[in-house]
Amino acid sequence: MAMLQALRLGAHTCVKSGSRDLATLSASHSASVASRSHKVAIVGGGSAGLTIGHQLLRTGAFRAQDIAIVDPNEWHHYQPGWTLVGGGLKDKRQLRARLSSLVDPKISLYAQGVSNFTPEQNTIDLINGHRITYDQLVVCPGIKVDFKSIKGLDEAVHDPHSPVSSIYSYDTCDKTARNIASFKKGKAIFTHPAGVVKCAGAPQKIMWLALDGWRRAGLYNPGDPSKSDTQITFATAMPVMFGVPKYSQRLNELREQRAVDGLFEHDLVGINGNTATLAKPDGSLVEKHFDLLHAVPKMKPYDFVKASSLANESGFVDIDQATLQHNTYGNVWSAGDASGLPTSKTAAAITAQAPVLVSNLLSSLDKRPLQAVYNGYTSCPLLTEYGKVMLAEFKYGGTPHETFGTFVDQGTPRRAFYHLKKDFFPWVYYKFMVEGTWAGPKGWKR
Ligand code: UQ1
């Protein structure tokens, strides 16, 4: 019930509340030389780092400055909102807050990048040469979105006049909205890259919004594309629309109903003017002309994680998929996009990972057995048109794990889920989640 009340509230208050204190810089954050030893050092002040840091603080087990967050970024972004920016539904500046304004003054904030992990000595080295010592380490710096991974992409997305854009960065997500709005006819291609993708539904969410906008403007006829001068293609490196069969099947039905051409196992590798080059699994290359291209870069672990002894063979942090404890170093933990957890990388996943990590880290400090278990929960609110969302929620193995599943079929796009995605999640994120009091489908926590 409390959740329903907040849903109503959230629809009005929106993410604005997240921008409180935007200009507030707390001097007490700046970690002094004397305090470079911490009970818990958290690498990364993104969704995982902030949520875990504040949940740890709220347990009451830590004193001021026992916990430190290390992150060189000035701004924290609500990245799930960038699809909404690309769809013209949000202003990107309303989705960000100064990182320092989000960190409790009882947590030390080092505005520095990490150069090196030395888990054998319980230390991390920072880019500025300083060394931090810890009892427990939480590694959650996220994943690198590599615009240089596709030839010509970096130049094209940053050229304000090119028809190429991407919702996968703060700098370029609003260009997507402009390109979609100014598109009048021709071939539009939306791509999904090979490899790991954070928020794996976003590459097609933006396509569904664009399609709906063009349909409403009379520029696209989903019933009979030959009646309009616009064709839409989804070019994905994957063999299917989505990694979970239940939702993939529904999305493929939508694709067919809406006459979107599906180029499966086609991986965008190069852009030259208005030509996209796509690679097939047999190594052959296909060239396609486009008048609008929405491209998603390839993503990879950060080098300082990959090069460390904390990484698995893929370069992500090598942790137990149930307890989130490192497989080699018992005082190292990870969550979020940098972790090697075999589940889809989303902010929703953090709502389930954070309480497990916090509980097990405390048990470990008290020399008790680790009892909390992460089941792989993650979610992807798939915008399928303006006003409708298919709320995909699943766990390890791609098994649906739906919060509202006993009442409704979450494979059917619904208006209520749209308001969760557009209004409620951005609001609850900044107001509660990063402060450590939101546990996703489990609701509010103390
Ligand atoms: C969620 O809690 C959350 O965080 C605020 C999201 O935003 C990124 C989500 O997309 C989802 C699905 C959740 C999960 C919560 C419910 C109530 C399904």
TrEMBL record:
Residues 39-158 form the FAD/NAD(P)-binding domain. It comes from the Eukaryota. GO terms for biological process: sulfide oxidation, using sulfide:quinone oxidoreductase. InterPro entries: FAD/NAD-bd_sf (IPR036188), FAD/NAD-binding_dom (IPR023753), Sulphide_quinone_reductase (IPR015904). GO terms for molecular function: FAD binding; sulfide:quinone oxidoreductase activity. Signal peptide: none annotated. GO terms for cellular component: mitochondrion. PANTHER family: SULFIDE:QUINONE OXIDOREDUCTASE (PTHR10632), SULFIDE:QUINONE OXIDOREDUCTASE, MITOCHONDRIAL (PTHR10632:SF2). This is FAD/NAD(P)-binding domain-containing protein. It comes from Emericellopsis atlantica.
